Amino acid sequence: MNAAILGYGTVGKSVFRLLERVEGISVRYVLELPDRLNESYMVSDPEVIFTDKDVDIVIDALPGTHPSYEYIKRALECGKHVVSSNKAAICFGFEELNKLAGEKGVSLLYEASCGGTIPIIEEILRIGKLDAIDKVYGILNGTCNYILWQMDKNSMDYGEALSLAQKAGYAEADPRADVSGFDVRNKIIILSSLAFDSFLEQDIPTVGIERIDKDLLCRFRSEGKVIKLLGMAVCSGSSYALAVAPAAIPETALEAGVPENFNMISFNGEYSGEIKLYGQGAGGDPTADAVVRDVEKILYKDPAEYGRTFEKKPGYDPALLRGTCHVGDQIYPDSVLSDMALKAEKEGKSFVFEFNA
Amino acid sequence: MNAAILGYGTVGKSVFRLLERVEGISVRYVLELPDRLNESYMVSDPEVIFTDKDVDIVIDALPGTHPSYEYIKRALECGKHVVSSNKAAICFGFEELNKLAGEKGVSLLYEASCGGTIPIIEEILRIGKLDAIDKVYGILNGTCNYILWQMDKNSMDYGEALSLAQKAGYAEADPRADVSGFDVRNKIIILSSLAFDSFLEQDIPTVGIERIDKDLLCRFRSEGKVIKLLGMAVCSGSSYALAVAPAAIPETALEAGVPENFNMISFNGEYSGEIKLYGQGAGGDPTADAVVRDVEKILYKDPAEYGRTFEKKPGYDPALLRGTCHVGDQIYPDSVLSDMALKAEKEGKSFVFEFNA
């Protein structure tokens, strides 16, 4: 089979190198900027790729919603299998792109979009086939985890920890997509849609870590709690709720010990019980590892996903995520997360949700 | 496809129930004791199963090495696919049974033999295809973890914690296979053979938890360390070492926080980095979950394993596992685990290895 890689940044380069180890696949094109076409296989016009009948798989290793979304759509329309590591684009066109892949009889796989090397989508789909999954949650953003981990460990200010994360290559120069919680939002929507077999399109409470300071971390530590940015999704009967927020979790919870820029994602199956997966959630090589796994599924005709339609239409019920909420210094027991997150936003205060798995 | 289930204990019953949810498979036989043949599909003569041409998959849900090993072999010889949850039998005939499956062109799958519901074999094989794995280790026995966890949490004696584990159904009336470390030995041999692509047949140091008392746990706690029973495997160039032993690990390590009867297994891939998987390592439903996943692989013609031969023949070098060893009250820095474990055994003393991942 022939592949084309869209984008030649950190992920694209790692994918290129790792694909050399896979028999039966060769990279025919790499989409690059016009001023960087250093190799014969590099092109800057994506239509060259989409219209080449010999290209079987298009690998999207671009960041951001656009033009990734448009490229994925075009590739599917041209009958190409698509593998994407781009959570923003996949989340943006989730229902439409999955449906389109089904209509065209091609695969749309995106393991690398959530949790890097961690095989979370594979596990959720596998368990979900037999089992009812009622909860998905976890640490889904390595940048935020690194910042909170540094702040907590070294009693550091937010700004100082952010600079450190940027120096270490764990945060972008413009870190807003990560620290605002929007990156986690994309991921928890993708994961819970698959887990609950429904496209969950609601706007969801999304609180980042910008207002977490070291005094707040200290206050929770003195009560035996650690703050982590969590994506949370619960389903009960025909209702569901999702949220992204800084969460206070007991020091004894495994999530409390997740260091540096690692991710840890959990879900519960009726038969399987609680499963947690831990690993590198970002970075070129770990992401490429997940991309190449998806490519191999197509190559070896694993019973891969040929699109997906969501039959269930559960109702959004934010009240399913309730508990003790902290808005600035105020404590609100047994409150609805989304209400209190909104209150914190309006008042310009920090927000922390006490999370018990 | 038609399946037969060997054994109708906790695992066999869960497998039976869970298979009802899988389209395309029906259970034709259950092998039961002669005095328990309550249903028309129950038989007590395994030859009825092996010689029935319409049986495609034999599911081994028996405990212990024999007669499981003989049944697996016979089923493979008769051209049946085999799925087994039995680590003792699989480890005992590992190289031979894998080779036989390859010769017969049938699948031999045993995800449920290591770590219950945790998809550890799948992950190791997947990562190992592209990546070099140089380390596998973890908490692989729920019974031992439950006992050590109770002893540590509630400052309990070994005997008291063992009774509690038996009452909770986490330990057998005869707990020796678990507490002696032999169960972990089988699992770490299976996992590291797959990870290092070699059949590692060496006798390996195997120390259980019988000599761990609450004073020892306290002593390590006061130094910020927790004792867990670990299976450990390392590979360096063309050498490897394996061991099972109580290990002192820092309180900050994720393994330190693994509660109750859960398992956590880790490995390192060159591309993927460190991956950890956590979940229920035993019990009827979690084990059945892994069994049924293997059955589905065969059913859906997933590129499942059709046997396996091990080409590499690395040399056993116990010196690869060295560090600080505790024999009773004595501390031996930078010592070889296997030497010190032997010394402890001879002197009838406790043994603890300081493990750093």
Defining key terms:
homodimer, 357 residues, alpha/beta, Rossmann fold, 9-stranded mixed beta sheet, 6-stranded parallel beta sheet, globular
Oligomeric state? homodimer
- Mean pLDDT of chain A, to the nearest integer, reads 94
Helical stretch count of chain A?
A: 13
Instruction: Assign the CATH architecture of the largest domain in chain A.
Output: 2-Layer Sandwich
Beta-strand content bin of chain A:
15-25%
Written description of the protein model:
The structure is a homodimer of 357-residue chains. Chain A is an alpha/beta fold. Chain A folds into two domains: 2-116 and 284-299, NAD(P)-binding Rossmann-like Domain (Rossmann fold); 120-280 and 321-354, Dihydrodipicolinate Reductase, domain 2. Chain A contains 13 helices and 15 strands. Chain A has helices at residues 10-19, 46-50, 68-77, 87-92, 94-104, 120-130, 142-153, 158-167, 176-179, 182-196, 214-221, 284-299, 337-347; strands at 2-6, 26-31, 42-43, 57-60, 81-84, 108-109, 133-139, 225-236, 239-250, 262-269, 273-280, 315-316, 322-327, 330-336, 351-354. In chain A, the strands form two sheets. In chain A, strands 7, 8, 9, 10, 11, 12, 13, 14 and 15 form a nine-stranded mixed β-sheet that branches. In chain A, strand 8 and strand 9 form a beta hairpin. In chain A, helix 3 runs parallel beside helix 5, helix 6 packs parallel to helix 10 (182-196) and helix 7 (142-153) crosses helix 8. The termini of chain A are far apart. Chain A binds chain B through residues 14, 18, 21-22, 117-119, 123, 126-127, 129-131, 252-254, 256-259, 262, 269-280, 283, 285-286, 288-289, 292-293, 296, 300-303, and chain B through 14, 18, 21-22, 117-119, 123, 126-127, 129-131, 252-254, 256-259, 262, 269-280, 283, 285-286, 288-289, 292-293, 296, 300-303.
